[in-house]
Amino acid sequence: MKSKNVFIIVAIILFSISCKPKLNEFVIDKNEYRNQLEGFWLGQCIANWTGLITEMDKIGIPVDGKGGGFYTRENWGGVDEPNLWGSNNYSDTIDFIYATRDSIWGADDDTDIEYMYQELLLENETLFLDGEQIRNGWLKHIYLNEENFLWVSNQRAFDLMQEGIIPPDTSDPKNNPFYEMIDAQLTTEIFGLYAPGSPKTALTMAYLPIRTTAQENAAWIAEFYIIMHALASDPIKFETLKEKTQWMAKNAREHLPNSSYAAKMYDFVLDHYEKNTQWEKTRDLLHEKYQINQDDNYLWSTKDESCNGCFAAGINFGASIISLLYGEGDIKETIKIAVLSGWDSDNPAATWGGLLGFMIGKEAIEKSFQIQFSNRFNIHRTRKGFSNSGIDTFTNMADKGLLIIDKVVTSQLNGSIDSEKGQWVIPN
Questions:
Q1: Which of 140, 150, 180, 392 could form a disulfide with 218 if both were Cys (CB 3.0 to 4.6 A apart)?
Q2: What are 293-348's pLDDT values in tens digits?
């Protein structure tokens, strides 16, 4: 009897050990990751649409008397002022915009190119899109003669593609004067989520999509965001989202060349955050240093005569670091600050809404807002040529992401799929 009990105890211990991940690997539950990917798309949409209310309302230096000055936290819930092009069609007040359960989210330029790249990866059965595949995808899915929701570098790259030019030549400064505009940093973040815990792999996958529209600082900034998205799945434990997001940002900062204005902008904002400077004051100082004084060889406020560099990668990156640091991992507070910070405000808002939405998952987003949001997404609001008349769901979009990650885990990360447990097992 005693020997039988000993056998049972030993068996339980061995079973327990076998169920625990080894020290040199980490395990990701695919169902949990699906919920996180749904959170990514939902968080992006909430933040993107809320940011559209204030997009180009405040750009510091006015253009024809419009866009001067900045909002502060006191403007949240208040009247939305006209942007450079007039009034927006979304809301008269600055507050969260969302699609409730019985409605549908519309695509915008902060979500639609990422959606397109996901479809192209699956359609071409590859993890590394080449220039021809990217060009063919753009020509197939982007409107030519109607409103196509492209601006600056994206539009120039699209024009070049119609002339037969293939990425990365579409971002070559000799061909594309907008190579340091904002475009790549709003179209490629998702690649970080395809390589959980592996920024190197994510950057390899995103190398050409980034350089479809960006070079130099704009490319490094896009890579900064991708690194943060990849590190969101790193198994290192933190007590709070504030601690984890700041650790992620610190690691991504190491990728930026120290001599670049992108790195110097990050360091400038971080320094003021650590000094407990109010976020509005930090934003005003950022504007003064880089748009007025043009420090660190940041010249876009004069090189861009249309709106003093309001679409530039640099100043919008600086603004995004303000909302990231001062938001301290709180999705609602981060979106609020991003929306009020100025310039192309829907872009930083969408980036952090997507990242924090991924980190907490769809269910936690709904709990935070105490709202059941729509799960449906209309890609044909801005793009064309997709199945089901362009109507998709976040669940289906997340499932497609899982298919890509299956390939990444097994072919790039030397990992494996435990189909019985629904897990990825990845060497650490």
A1: 180
A2: 999 999 999 999 899 999 999 999 999 999 999 999 999 999 999 999 999 999 99
DSSP symbol at 415? -
- Give the strand pairing for 423-427 and 25-29: antiparallel
Tokens of residue 175, six digits? 């061909």
List the structure tokens of 15. Answer: 């079973």
Q: Which amino acid is at 303?
A: K
Whole-number Å distance between alpha carbons of 367 and 373: 10
Which residues are 416's β-sheet partners?
425
What are φ and ψ of residue 259, in 5° steps? -85, -10
Cα 409–Cα 411–Cα 414 angle in degrees, nearest 5: 65
What's the farthest any 2 CA atoms get from each other in the chain? 92
DSSP string computed for 92-150: SB-S----BTTS-EEP-TTTHHHHHHHHHHHHTT-SS--HHHHHHHHHHHS-SSS----
Tell which residue, 302, 304, 364, 311, has the closest CA to residue 109: 311
pLDDT of residue 21: 56
CA distance 345 to 349: 6
Of the candidates 342, 350, 354, which has an alpha carbon nearest to the alpha carbon of residue 318? Answer: 342
How would you write 345-401 as a 3-class SS string? CHHHHHHHHHHHHHHHCHHHHHHHHCCCECCEEEHHHCCCCCCHHHEEEHHHHHHHH
Can you tell me the distance from the alpha carbon of 215 to that of 197, in angstroms, rounded to the nearest whole number? Answer: 25
Among 379, 387, 270, 380, smallest CA distance to 317 is for 270
How open is the CA angle 404-388-116, to the nearest 5 degrees? 40
CA distance 257 to 403: 34
Tokens of 97: 């915009």
pLDDT in tens, 64-79: 999 999 999 999 999 9
Joined together, the tokens standing for residue 54 give 């204030």
* Residue appearing with tokens 């936690």: 364
DSSP codes joined into one string, 153-184: HHHHHHHHHHTT--TTGGG-TTT-TTTTBSGG
* pTM recorded for the entire structure: 0.95
Query: What are 92-138's pLDDT values in tens digits?
Result: 999 999 999 999 999 999 999 999 999 999 999 999 999 999 999 99
Domains of the chain plus CATH, in order, are 28-427 (1.10.4080.10)
Pull the structure tokens for residue 357. Answer: 């939405």
Q: Give how far Cα 286 sits from Cα of 259, 305, 313, 344, Å.
A: 17, 20, 14, 15
